[in-house]
Amino acid sequence: MMTKNMVIALSRPHVLFFLLLASSLMQCHSRCNFLDENLSTTNIKGMFVFGSSVVDNGNNNFLQTSTRANYLPYGLDFPVAPASGRFSNGKNVIDLLAKLLGLPFIPPFLDPLTKGLRMARGVNFGSGGSGIRDETGSVTGDVMSLKEQIMAFEGTTLGELEAELGCGSKESLCHFLFVVGTGSNDYSFNYFLQSPPDSDADTDEKLQAFTSNLTASLSQYFQKLYGLGARKFVLMSVNPIGCYPYVKASRPMVRVQSMNRAARLFNSNLVSLVNDLPARLPHSHVVVVNAYKIIRDILKNPSPKGFTNTEEPCCEVRSMAQGGNGIFCRRGGLTCSNRSSYVFFDGIHPSEAVNDRISSKAFTSYLWSEVYPFNV
């Protein structure tokens, strides 16, 4: 029977977090040979990352695709090596979240050097241009869909991790964070290519059906990872895709609103998914980071947060009229000098300063409107 104090505790997100963490630790015992036990400031031993360009840290460098960030000015402010394949001027949200967790940079799966001790703290499978649906991103060439990313994790990484840690996945994976950041490309470069905003093909019924299909597929992928041993999940919401410089420059305002409406619908479904999954996946914990709201708050009131430019990309982007696509930085092109004050680095990707704000909110915020139902 629940006491009055328990009810009060459960109404406070930070108290709820510690209650659930205690429950998780009780269910997560292992005899694994984890490395550098004092490296992490939390109970998290590493991260496995899945998704699109918002989390990709170099996998597309090894794929035949036009969606690449392996050239300057991408990575101009990255501390280790510039042009590493991150779609930003510096660190992406995964790099910054890893730092807050006391973890090193998570290596990309397709890098031949990602093996042995280097993968013992996790692996990043993210692939720029990819989506939840298999066909998303096909217009840009060879990318790894979410399904292919999870297949790579199961078919290759899992066995190597078990050999490295000296224990089975059911013992080890409950100590790792599984981060998924995908979905925006399924709208920008799939749904809205087939059903342009404000056209007869774009109806509420069609959008709701498409979104329901996306979240149903995502739920199945969560269940797949859970079956392999994953227990701690972080799900990044879709960003306000209608606010991208690429979209604003090429589409009328009514289309901007339609794309943001789609993002909000998807993100609302994510919250429902978070509420539903624990009942079907015992001892699992799923967190949604509402990057949509965090970015929208910056766009609505940028100055107090240190931003001055919310409309333009920091790097030189060629429009379609100039032979570009309005999205990616021109190779070797110019950049703004005050990169930390720009919201967007290129036509669709946030600057490191925005990524830093998202990761910080994910780690520390107690607001359900920013992280739900508790922070990372």
TrEMBL record:
Q: Does the keyword Ribonucleoprotein apply?
A: no
- In this record, what's one Pfam family? Lipase_GDSL
What's the domain of life for this entry?
Answer: Eukaryota
Main location group: secreted
Signal sequence, renumbered to the chain:
1-30
**What Gene Ontology biological process does one annotation of this record name?**
lipid catabolic process
Task: Indicate what this protein is called per its UniProt record.
Answer: GDSL esterase/lipase At5g45670-like isoform X1
One GO cellular component from the entry?
A: extracellular region
- Keyword line: Hydrolase, Lipid degradation, Lipid metabolism, Secreted, Signal
Q: Where in the cell is it found?
A: Secreted
Matches recorded under SUPFAM superfamilies? SGNH hydrolase (SSF52266)
MF GO annotations: hydrolase activity, acting on ester bonds
Classification via InterPro entries = GDSL, GDSL_esterase/lipase, SGNH_hydro_sf, SGNH_plant_lipase-like
Similarity annotation: Belongs to the 'GDSL' lipolytic enzyme family.
